[in-house]
Amino acid sequence: MIQRHSIILWKKAEKPDKSYEEISNEAYRVLDLFQDMPCELRPNYLTAYTKKDIKEFDWNFENFTNILRAGINKEGKNTFESLGYSISFFSSLDEEKSCAFSLCVGNKFEKIYNALIIDLPLVLNLYDKANAELIISLFRKLVRLYIPYWGCVSNRVLARKYGKFLEGSRPTTAHWMNYWSEEVVRAVGIDKIQGFIQGNQGTSFDDGILLVKDTAFDLSKEEDIRLHEKIHNQIFL
Hints:
By secondary structure, the chain is an alpha+beta fold. Helices cover 34% and strands 22% of the residues. It has one domain (5-236). Helix 1 (20-32) packs across helix 2 (61-70) and helix 6 (190-199) runs antiparallel to helix 7 (222-236). The protein is globular.
């Protein structure tokens, strides 16, 4: 069973007076983190409509901010700056080895999230402890820099099962890694979170990050299915 994993971070709307320069600087710093990652985890190519239009991206701030500005939300000739900007990259021309990056920033409408979504390569084995530790470290760095409202490292099989990630401020379930802001923690209940952590060795909750186990959920394994059911039942039911 193929189980694609994704890093998903949602951020609340920006303040109305936030400038494009501030928005693009912050967005660049977030994606620039990936320049310290292995090549298959870097934004090497801009997404294009056809293969013949694909070009390797020369990673620097000037190129980034110009491309991001071109990704302004628009309909026909009308542009909607308050709805923000979008940009997307991928890491490899080999689909199984490729990591996809989608970033939406600068939205200023309260009911719409800004979002960073990274679909990790299918060949990246997150059941291997070294690879898992790489993503755990990356997730923590992204949370500190991006400052999301909510986030997770999602297993697509689990994501399909629950259909959506949040109901109001409350997550629908726990994933392998989770970031819960103070508002989300209040909605879940700190007592429930701490109760689960105290009773389950190998789990941790610090700086809003809930780590359920040292490697990703493998939902082809009965032991991981049982562990997920346990945390879901204890915290969410």
